[in-house]
Amino acid sequence: DSQYKYILSEKVGNQKNVGLVTLNRPKALNALCDGLINELSNAINKFEKDETVSAIVITGSEKAFAAGADIKEMLNQTYSANITGGLLEEWDTVSKCKKPIIAAVNGYALGGGCELAIMCDIIYAGETAKFGQPEVIIGTIPGAGGTQRIARSCGKSFAMEVCLTGNQFTAQEAFNRGLVSKIFQPDKVVEEAIKLGERISQHSQIIIQLCKESVNNAFETGLAQGLKFEKKQFYGTFATEDRKEGMTAFVEKRQPNFSNK
Ligand code: CAA
User: Fold this and answer.
1) Residue nearest to ligand 1 atom 8, measured at CA
2) Do residues 53 and 161 share a domain?
3) Mean pLDDT of all residues belonging to the chain
4) Tens digits of per-residue pLDDT, 150-209?
């Protein structure tokens, strides 16, 4: 899509069913200025509506996934303008997307860059990726989910250490803590993320949506409520043609042919 200034957006994979967004503001290490977030949000919304796209990959460059919210843009921002303008609210497009989003992270994923990656459903990282929430160093705190999502994914002690020190942590550490699901050589990360998107695309998209919603519930509710939600979603799969097709294909020893109905 050539209309964009700060990102590249294209359909990739053998069947062109994976949407790839590449953050492309190299001079500022992909600092997430309003213009960039606006374009990212627009690209995600387009992929969300595009029935031929089943999964989305967000990546940056080998040097930087994203070095955070744009500090220069925030410098003269005021409290009242944050409230009336809803600073960082547009970022929610990523966390609210119904289709699976994979972050393919190389280089710096700091501040808002780290938060953007964690907003995605799955993180694949390059061996040399560096994560961190350095906001305290510049006199503020994470504002796009860092204090909440790291605490939920990795527990209190690690979240506190990361957020209170501003220290960077490696891809290996992120993997050990369960923040990242796999690590690759830097030049393989995007390719592997696309392959993962293609793998997810083989399944019924309606079932994938129900499944993603159910896993997300684990972060938003207590266990009893989450289990109840999961059961409802599970029962709900029996209202789809694809559930019947999937089980029939297994019994008939053939590949399923899903219709997304
Ligand atoms: N905002 C604006 N510009 C940024 C930026 C950011 N977050 N990060 C880097 N840049 C710019 C630099 O200002 C520099 O621009 P100029 O050439 O015009 O001076 C350019 O990108 C290259 O950066 P460096 O020269 O600093 O590159 P480096 O390799 O020496 O260091 C770095 C890399 C360690 C990532 C360093 O750039 C850095 O510390 N960046 C800031 C990280 C940060 O604090 N992020 C948190 C932002 S706040 C936030 O995100 C709030 C939130 O919760 C949403």
Assistant:
1) 67
2) yes
3) 97
4) 999 999 999 999 999 999 999 999 999 999 999 999 999 999 999 999 999 999 999 999
Asked if residue 260 is part of any domain, the answer here is no
Domain match, 166 and 239 both: no
Q: Which residue's CA is the closest to the ligand 1 atom numbered 13?
A: 28
| Prediction ipTM score | 0.98
User: What is d(CA 120, CA 255) in angstroms, rounded to the nearest whole number?
Assistant: 30
Identify the helix (H) or strand (E) that includes residue 169: strand 169-170
Name the packing angle between helices 241-251 and 205-220 (round to 10°). Answer: 110
Question: Is the pLDDT confidence value at 1 over 90?
Answer: no
Domain that holds residue 224: 205-251
Let me know the angle formed at the C-alpha of 194 by 172 and 184, rounded to the nearest 5 degrees.
25
Does the C-beta of 135 come closer than 6 Å to ligand 1?
yes
Position 257 in a domain: no
Residue 17, domain member (yes or no)? yes
Q: Which residues are catalytic?
A: 69, 112, 115, 135
